[in-house]
Amino acid sequence: MNQVIMEKRELPYAVKEELKLLRTNIQFCGADKRMILLTSAVSSEGKSTSAFNLCDSFAELGKSVILIDTDMRRSTMSHKVTSGTVKAGLSHYLSGQCGIGDVIYETGIQNLHCVFSGNVPPNPVELLANDRMKALLDYAKNHYDYVIVDAAPLGMVVDAAAIAPQCDGAILLLESGKINYHLASNVAEQIKKTGCPLLGVVLNKVDYKSGKKYYKGYYKHYYKEYA
How far is the CA of 40 from the CAs of 22, 59, 78, 97, 131, in angstroms? Predict the structure, then answer.
């Protein structure tokens, strides 16, 4: 199997506890909720960092986890690679240039594998909607305890909607103080229209000192990103 080393930053205790709470909430959604799509409303809300940290949290629990980076337009996941080379990614596989085994990478973190996004293709939505994407997700679900799908912001492009019907549930990540209620509601409604259950909302980069009340989801989870 391909190998790279991904940077694992030491998180503050409070952040680790918030991640454990999010992990527990997902587990209590049911044993059938193992393939989770994570999306946001707009870019730069901390979605990919949150997806990576969530995967790491499950891996620390002894669960086998694979992170699939489907944000082929503006991915940041490869920036976490500190050693090794990503030769092929999701776009290469979906366009028929290689097989599933060619795009799964060990990360240097026990129990955690990753599929990187690959080169930027001219047709991301069409690639995500093809049969090869379904085959990859089926393979991942059959070989891992949890599959975390990092998807492009649904408030900006429709890529996540092409994948959502194949996932067991979705989590919407929103940045505190940046996203208004109407935009958040519209994105949540788009997720529901795909038939994928919206498991909850993660509010990221919360200023705990402000004392403000925040957007309500099916469950409410506050996660202050460590950056």
Answer: 16, 23, 19, 29, 25
Q: How many CA atoms lie within 13 A of 22 on its CB side?
A: 30
The pLDDT value given to residue 226:
35
**Whole-angstrom distance, CA of residue 35 vs CA of residue 42:** 22
CA distance 225 to 191: 24
Consecutive H or E run containing 160: helix 159-163
Give the pLDDT of residue 18: 86
Tokens of 23: 């992990």
Predicted pLDDT of residue 56: 96
Q: How far is CA 102 from CA 12, 99, 108, 153, 173, in A?
A: 35, 5, 17, 26, 30
Distance CA 209, CA 186 (A): 28
What is the rounded distance in angstroms from the CA atom of residue 33 to the CA atom of residue 168?
5
Rounded Cα gap, residues 204 and 206, in angstroms: 6
Q: What confidence score (pLDDT) does residue 1 get?
A: 87
Query: ∠ CA 48-29-171 to the nearest 5 degrees?
Result: 25
Question: What was the pLDDT predicted at 89?
Answer: 97
pLDDT of residue 217: 34
- The C-alpha atoms of residue 167 and residue 140 are separated, in whole angstroms, by 11
**Which residues in the chain show pLDDT less than 50?**
211-227
